[in-house]
């Protein structure tokens, strides 16, 4: 995987990566008789992709199918969000325009991409074109309308407007002028997989219902294939994998307790608590206690309260 570091000092660069054909071909072989994560055998294009021996065969299979559905490219991302903040993004770029994934992460377009904001919240497809993909990430509920999201608000700062312009210009240069995006659920409470289909057609109004249906079938098939073939796209965040002390510390963090209070409650040392907190932050890709408390609420089902202690 290629890593693309962000400029913020509290951002783990390993959380933003591009995963490609080379990584996929170097992964361990998976038997076609293996069950998919949901207990069902791979079927349809997922089975065909798994049967393909290499990247060339996968492209020969999927690209004509993609074009027959009326699209030129697709982008597949596994996104982890804490609230409205994306703290991890793994991008599978095999069927994206050349260089697009790297630029998307390098310039942090995911922070203002209305397709991500919408598809992380809704199961319905989002039809989009260049007038609707960029939005101000600071606007509450950005990208949550059905169909196409609202265009960038006119109240944006000059810097935000310039950034939105860079996104739409980059998309135009890559030939990504309109399309449809889908959000696909995962067993992970914090993760969503996003599949964006792109076309050189200038208007989303020309996208027929049949094309949307074909795109969804392709999205699900690719998602199932990658879930079975590329475990590095995933991460383990299930509460059953936590030790008793990790779980206890995670629950006490949601109560706003500091390290000293947690140590006293559990009858252990301050240094042990600090060690386990660092483990938990690494496991959940959290950068501070507030994020860790949010994660506890999602993963453990614990009530999330204000965390006054510093990270």
UniProtKB/TrEMBL annotation:
UniProt keyword annotations, A-Z: DNA-binding, Transcription, Transcription regulation
Region spans: Disordered: 139-164
Domain HTH luxR-type residues, every copy: 239-296
One Gene Ontology BP term is: regulation of DNA-templated transcription
Keyword Membrane (UniProt): no
Give one Pfam hit by family name. GerE
Task: Spell out the molecular function terms from Gene Ontology.
Answer: DNA binding
The molecule here is called: HTH luxR-type domain-containing protein
Q: State the organism named in the record.
A: Trinickia soli
């Amino acid at each position: 995987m290629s890593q693309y570091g962000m400029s913020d000092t509290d951002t783990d660069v390993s959380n933003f990566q591009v995963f490609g054909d080379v990584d996929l071909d170097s992964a361990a072989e998976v038997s076609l008789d293996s069950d998919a994560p949901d207990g069902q055998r791979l079927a349809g294009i997922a089975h065909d992709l798994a049967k393909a021996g290499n990247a060339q065969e996968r492209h020969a299979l999927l690209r004509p199918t993609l074009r027959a559905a009326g699209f030129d490219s697709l982008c597949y991302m596994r996104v982890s969000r804490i609230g409205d903040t994306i703290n991890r993004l793994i991008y599978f770029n095999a069927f994206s325009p050349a260089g697009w994934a790297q630029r998307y992460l390098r310039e942090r377009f995911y922070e203002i991409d209305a397709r991500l904001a919408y598809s992380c919240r809704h199961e319905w497809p989002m039809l989009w074109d260049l007038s609707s993909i960029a939005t101000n990430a600071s606007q509450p509920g950005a990208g949550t309308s059905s169909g196409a999201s609202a265009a960038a608000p006119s109240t944006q700062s000059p810097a935000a407007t310039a950034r939105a312009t860079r996104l739409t210009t980059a998309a135009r240069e890559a030939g990504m002028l309109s399309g449809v995006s889908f959000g696909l659920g995962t067993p992970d409470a914090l993760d969503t997989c996003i599949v964006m289909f792109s076309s050189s057609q200038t208007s989303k109004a020309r996208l027929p219902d049949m094309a949307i249906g074909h795109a969804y079938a392709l999205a699900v098939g690719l998602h199932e294939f990658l879930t079975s073939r590329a475990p590095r796209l995933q991460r383990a965040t299930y509460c059953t994998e936590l030790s008793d002390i990790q779980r206890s510390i995670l629950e006490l963090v949601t109560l706003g307790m500091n390290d000293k209070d947690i140590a006293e409650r559990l009858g252990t040392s301050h240094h042990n608590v600090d060690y386990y907190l660092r483990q938990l932050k690494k496991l959940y890709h959290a950068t501070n206690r507030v994020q860790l408390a949010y994660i506890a609420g999602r993963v453990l089902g614990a009530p999330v309260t204000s965390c006054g202690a510093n990270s």
